[in-house]
């Protein structure tokens, strides 16, 4: 399966309702700090919306809920991987994307046979506080050489203008949050992203 090159991340299914009709074919639901009932309801809604639009949905963090809901893809960071039951995830048939930021983390995840590897933050991000400031484009090229045929996702400080350079450096996919969600016209911005990555 070839994943779309444009990979936006949203924190609520209201965003999916707005953006899926514009041609988003790969999307992550990244919910933080919500009660369990809300998380379960949001994941079930996202699953149904993405199926209706022929889009791949990736669930961030909530691997057990993703299994229970019959979802297809998960994204787990390094701390998430410490807690997750990988055999149960694989047994349920879920595909797995993982975060990496340094050599040790990359070595660790390559042993897990991931379905994509994310490298971040390629550029500085305002979304969350991170130990790493920016990896830079040479690091993207280095990571692609190391992951080989595993799809490489570049994330962190992405914009429509930066995306071509990140793809040219070796990323297969570009993932983005605030360039869309903080834009004055998020729909117009998503249309630009779709145009720039097709
Ligand atoms: C595509 C993609 N890459 C990285 C992350 C970050 O995951 P993680 O390190 O677990 O941090 P949180 O997003 O859970 O705060 C991601 N979600 N997606
Ligand atoms: C979740 C995450 N992981 C690495 S960078 C990042 C944030 C990406 O957000 P933005 O596209 O707004 O920089
Ligand atoms: Mg996480």
From TrEMBL:
Co-factor requirement: Mg(2+)
Known catalytic reactions: 2-(2-carboxy-4-methylthiazol-5-yl)ethyl phosphate + 4-amino-2-methyl-5-(diphosphooxymethyl)pyrimidine + 2 H(+) = thiamine phosphate + CO2 + diphosphate; 4-methyl-5-(2-phosphooxyethyl)-thiazole + 4-amino-2-methyl-5-(diphosphooxymethyl)pyrimidine + H(+) = thiamine phosphate + diphosphate; 2-[(2R,5Z)-2-carboxy-4-methylthiazol-5(2H)-ylidene]ethyl phosphate + 4-amino-2-methyl-5-(diphosphooxymethyl)pyrimidine + 2 H(+) = thiamine phosphate + CO2 + diphosphate
UniProt KW DNA damage keyword: no
Pathway assignment: Cofactor biosynthesis; thiamine diphosphate biosynthesis; thiamine phosphate from 4-amino-2-methyl-5-diphosphomethylpyrimidine and 4-methyl-5-(2-phosphoethyl)-thiazole: step 1/1
Domain Thiamine phosphate synthase/TenI: residue ranges: 12-180
Entries under SUPFAM superfamilies matching the protein: Thiamin phosphate synthase
Pfam families in alphabetical order: TMP-TENI
Enzyme class, broadest EC rank: transferase
UniProt cross-references to CDD domains, sorted A to Z: TMP_TenI
Key words of the record: Magnesium, Metal-binding, Thiamine biosynthesis, Transferase
GO molecular function, one term: thiamine-phosphate diphosphorylase activity
EC number: 2.5.1.3
Family designation: Belongs to the thiamine-phosphate synthase family.
UniProt protein name: Thiamine-phosphate synthase
């Amino acid at each position: 399966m070839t994943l779309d090159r444009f990979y936006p991340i949203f924190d609520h299914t209201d965003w999916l309702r707005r953006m899926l009709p514009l041609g988003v074919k790969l999307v992550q639901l990244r919910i933080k700090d919500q009660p369990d009932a809300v998380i379960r309801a949001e994941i079930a809604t996202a699953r149904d919306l993405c199926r209706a639009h022929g889009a791949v949905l990736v669930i961030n963090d909530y691997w057990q809920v993703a299994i229970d809901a019959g979802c297809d893809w998960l994204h787990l960071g390094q701390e998430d991987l410490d807690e997750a039951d990988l055999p149960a995830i694989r047994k349920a048939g879920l595909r797995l994307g993982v975060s990496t930021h340094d050599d040790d983390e990359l070595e660790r995840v390559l042993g897990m046979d991931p379905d994509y590897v994310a490298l971040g933050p390629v550029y500085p991000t305002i979304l969350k506080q991170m130990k790493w400031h920016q990896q830079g484009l040479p690091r993207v090229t280095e990571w692609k050489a190391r992951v080989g045929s595993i799809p490489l996702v570049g994330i962190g400080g992405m914009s429509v203008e930066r995306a071509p350079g990140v793809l040219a450096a070796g990323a297969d996919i570009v993932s983005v949050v605030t360039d869309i969600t903080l834009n004055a016209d998020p729909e117009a911005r998503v249309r630009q992203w779709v145009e720039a990555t097709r």
